[in-house]
Specification:
Layout: H1 8-18, E1 20-23, H2 31-46, H3 53-56, E2 70-74, E3 78-83, H4 91-118, H5 127-130, E4 145-152, E5 163-169, E6 175-180, E7 185-188, E8 195-197, H6 208-211, E9 216-221, H7 223-228, E10 238-242, E11 254-262, E12 268-270, E13 289-292, H8 293-301, E14 305-306, H9 311-325, H10 330-333, E15 339-340
Parallel strand pairs: 14-15
Antiparallel strand pairs: 1-9, 2-3, 3-4, 4-11, 5-10, 6-9, 6-11, 7-8, 7-10, 12-13
Length: 341
């Protein structure tokens, strides 16, 4: 994997074909310090008592959208805090989260410009959809968010090995950046159909974890980017698998990760602007002429079920989705690939 990342063009070619790309966080100024501080505050937040005001005030709604904003605990699996605005962010997280969000937003903008160049599109073609998301909004939500995870590692006398804490799925948006403090993220290799532990130091450029203060960073392409590039960029299929506490993970009963998910802000969308020699032309049923990008996002979201919802909710979503696709249909055969994170 590391051998292919010899230049930006090679890196983006790998992202396009595989849907994921490891990065060295230390190569991007300020990011190691920002995320190290945010991990510290994230741990403190999740360690607060269940009835603390910082958790109860920001309790997530119930149902399928529970992971979209606020605090959610799924027993024996994971705890989640999703933030979309400064106003709806616990004070214990606010300063550090804003710093990490703004630095990541700037990085994502540069990457999206580079992606546009690989597609032979205008460099600013993505700008109307990403510029409103570059800094943490004070009060006005955009679809973009930062989501903090604390995954429960398997432990106890019946533990037999690693546990899948988030099933096989794809992200919905343009790009996601996953920053981890220990291995757990796995991506599906498009050629071998095998799972790659993308945060394992054996699969990363030499020294990148040490230089990055023990943190890993992985880019994931999402379904919206896959649509707008007409498949030139593949949405990365991934999952999270947590190993039991061990010397390798310092006996920590949890795995932490932080995800910046760049989703398109509502703006008029013209698919003609995304056509090029590389992308080709959008066909019947694909063309959009001035509708809000939110319509496209809703259309994509309706074909997925949520791996971060409570188990009973996601099982109901899965059954409905499989029913809509009919027995033996594509959605059934590839059901887990139609899950969203």
């Amino acid at each position: 994997m590391a051998q292919r990342q010899v230049s930006d063009d090679h890196a983006l070619h790998f992202l396009a074909s595989e849907g994921y790309l490891p990065l060295a966080l230390a190569d991007h100024p300020g990011m190691v310090e920002a995320y190290t501080k945010l991990f510290t505050q994230t741990s403190e937040f999740f360690n607060l008592p269940p009835g603390s005001p910082e958790k109860t005030e920001y309790q997530a709604a119930s149902g399928a959208a529970a992971s979209e904003e606020g605090y959610l605990k799924i027993p024996n699996e994971k705890s989640i805090m999703t933030v979309r605005t400064s106003q709806h962010c616990p004070a214990i997280l606010r300063t550090e989260l804003q710093a990490a969000w703004n630095l990541t937003g700037s990085l994502m903008q540069k990457i999206m410009t580079a992606i546009a160049n690989t597609l032979e599109l205008q460099p600013d073609v993505f700008s109307p959809f990403i510029e409103p998301c570059m800094t943490l909004p004070q009060t006005e939500r955009t679809p973009t968010f930062v989501r903090m995870f604390r995954y429960d590692r398997p432990q106890g006398p019946t533990t037999t090995g690693p546990k899948v804490n988030a099933e096989k799925h794809k992200d919905l948006g343009m790009l996601s950046l996953v920053v981890g403090h220990s291995p757990g993220l796995q991506a599906l290799d498009s050629k071998t159909n095998a799972w790659i532990s993308v945060e394992d130091q054996r699969n990363l450029p030499p020294g990148s974890i040490t230089r990055s203060g023990g943190l890993t960073a992985t880019l994931l392409a999402g379904e919206t980017l896959a649509f707008l590039s007409r498949g030139s960029y593949t949405a990365g299929v991934h999952r999270v698998v947590c190993a039991p506490p061990s010397a390798e993970n310092k006996g920590d009963p949890y795995r932490f990760s932080i995800v910046y998910a760049l989703r398109a802000a509502p703006a008029p969308l013209f698919t003609k602007c995304f056509e090029s020699r590389v992308v080709g032309e959008f066909g019947p049923g694909e063309t959009v002429e001035g509708q809000s990008s939110a319509v496209l996002f809703e259309k994509i979201m309706r074909t997925h079920w949520n791996v971060n919802a409570a188990p009973s909710v996601r099982e109901e979503q899965r059954r409905k989705f499989e029913g809509m696709n009919g027995s033996g249909g594509q959605g059934v055969a590839n059901g887990q690939e139609r899950a969203l994170g």
